[in-house]
């Protein structure tokens, strides 16, 4: 069994630390098995402290020596940390500990990845490096000396000295320990420079292992664009002499915003046309921006405690989405974000893992780096901006920086600056932070004598621990279209505050067609009776591109729902609308690609479930197949031409426009493959000079079960490139027919290049299995068993990555009793594992309850 009684931490129990940390000096003597960390920390007791107990966190540390004001002391050490008698006046704490980076497979604290030392401290990893008050509200300046044989020795802040075998760094900005970082290795840099708007010259570097130096240019450009954008849009400037980014192969997450020394999963920074897809390029640009933006939203202003995580993450995701909208197409970005939100956050919010945007309790904070904190947290900021207006938003955010720079803050502080600068009462709005669950809005309408009335009724289903919900303030952006498709009322934001409320529009010549929830103005599920004819009308005429896409998406969903429930043939009107749209060259290719992309299998399962049906993953898969086949056949005559016309010629460029064209082209190829068995795909594979086209062709061929030659060729070509091999591993599972997905994944876990210890490789296989819905849920439960086997194996090595992957089971209650019993058995088996981590234990028990 897991730890006897896992401890639950509550927001309401927050108490400040009783000591001020004035300065931190750290010296690292690096050695793979026995790194020595010497700390010298100046503490001042706080005169007004409620709690004066001196507790320093510390885990898996071997204490060699401890002193207070130069005198040896013998603290009481437990598995969680130490306590010690300390003076009531300012004192200097010194300690020396020994740690073993090379055996650290959890990838938290100081560890090694391909021979280089690196750290990951968020959320609570610093306590695995030395004894410290490891909490975000304890901020201090750090001076770090690194001694080691590696060519490159990096830490936060500015370099303050170096010599043969050592380097010293000083970070003048007070920071919490979770932003500490150290890197040491034989690395190569891709350098550049940036001059801030006030004329400060900043040295920029992307550090990589030898061999990867030709994959840094795109990331560097993205960094420079981000620095410029934050100055232009938020007025925020960089504040050190140097900004370093390091690429690391073994990393639990995407990237980390350590002050002045961002550490990236190599998959989120390294890019080249030959090895990266368009999607990779876009994601890399966004993540570089995200981490850079944290320099202000997260680092200069940080979180008081981990319950406030969305304070930095929601805001920073919101900022990076603004950046991507500005760099690329705002409407394409919005549509993609909503697809992602529905796929991940709605699944979370409507199942056993539902939690508040600001949770009030947790056992393991690492389990709360979720779509709810990040993506719903960003949606909440988008709603706030919509409610107060753009100008008021800018003013309030400026006040936030002015008032709170250098502090560790709460959501209350954030909302207060909006209240103070706008005079608006945000108490009802704050429910978006305190109430979990996705609100439903039921819409009915009525037209009489030139007046059109919309009635909106809101309710939120119960979530674990929160049976009853109050009405929230929900911004619902609405426009009205006349019968000829012209807009008769431009977008207006209705503020829904009551459980049920009506809004009238008068002076209308005839009954309008409403376009509701434009730009997806709130993260809600809208329920409204409509017809396919009306949806097709909106798809053709709505001036709001999100809602045009949404109309098409709803048509696509309804067509498949009818196929699943009534064995209906694919809806003819919809097929007709689609074939027209595909051929309409006046439309943005990226938009056409999005309209053509089918609703996810998981989204369909959730829709069926909400309507009282038990979703059958195989039936959903079959409907999708039939639909695509029918569409391909309806397009028989034009597909070869459409495919040729959308093929991007010339040298590869990752810009948004070319990427949109290639996306549409890939959809044409996948339809065409249904007709030609893979001839065009094989040709594209042979001719491809970039990964986007190579990858797309291979996916089509594998899906058609006609890609063995190319899969082998791909392997031979790329076996030396870890990131490309992740694609190879993932594609085999993602493109497997449902019946074969689990065995394909099982075989891959036996492959010589499968490595449980590398999170990217683990996710490539197990993540792809979980995403292949019909394969994962294939009758018999082999997928469940395989995932559970691998989760159990990984938990002993890497609890964080294991726990995150458990969410593959979060939707289990949607399914039939046979599947539920199969899943329950696996969850119980995981739960009964000896020495199960706190991370996985918490996830599994929440999912089971
Ligand atoms: N703070 C990181 C980000 O969002 C994510 C992260 C969390 C990385 C925990 C590592 C560990 O940018
Ligand atoms: Zn972040």
Keywords:
Peptidase_M1_pepN_C; binds phenylalanine; single chain; EC 3.4.11.2; 27 helices; binds zinc ion; Aminopeptidase_N-like_N_sf; hydrolase; about 850 residues; eight-stranded mixed β-sheet; protease
Briefly characterize the structure.
The chain has 849 residues and is of the alpha+beta class. Helices cover 42% and strands 21% of the residues.
Oligomeric state, counting identical vs distinct chains? single chain
Instruction: Assign the structural class, choosing from mainly alpha, mainly beta, alpha/beta, alpha+beta, or little secondary structure.
Output: alpha+beta
**Which runs of at least 5 residues are low in confidence (pLDDT < 50)?**
none
Shape: globular
Mean pLDDT: 97
Widest sheet: strand ordering: 6-5-9-3-2-12-15-14
Bound molecules: phenylalanine, zinc ion
The biggest beta sheet reads:
8 strands, mixed
Q: Could you tell me the strand content as a percent range?
A: 15-25%
Q: What value does the Rg take, in angstroms?
A: 27 Å
N-to-C span? 17 Å
| Helix content class | 40-55%
The total count of strands amounts to 31
- SS field, number of helical segments: 27
Report on this model:
- Its cofactor is Zn(2+).
- Residues 26-179 form the Aminopeptidase N-like N-terminal domain.
- This is Aminopeptidase N.
- Its EC number is 3.4.11.2.
- InterPro entries: Aminopeptidase_N-like_N (IPR045357), Aminopeptidase_N-like_N_sf (IPR042097), PepN_Ig-like_sf (IPR038438), Peptidase_M1 (IPR001930), Peptidase_M1_dom (IPR014782), Peptidase_M1_pepN (IPR012779), Peptidase_M1_pepN_C (IPR024601), Peptidase_M1_pepN_C_sf (IPR037144).
- By secondary structure, the protein is an alpha+beta fold.
- The protein is 42% helix and 21% strand.
- The protein is built from 27 helices and 31 strands.
- The strands form eight sheets. The protein has an eight-stranded mixed sheet, with no helix packed on it.
- Strand 7 and strand 8 (81-83) form a beta hairpin.
- Helix 20 (722-734) packs parallel to helix 22 (759-771).
- The longest helix has 22 residues, at 545-566.
- The chain is globular and about 85 Å long.
- The mean pLDDT is 97.
- The chain binds phenylalanine and zinc ion.
- Zinc ion binds next to helix 3.
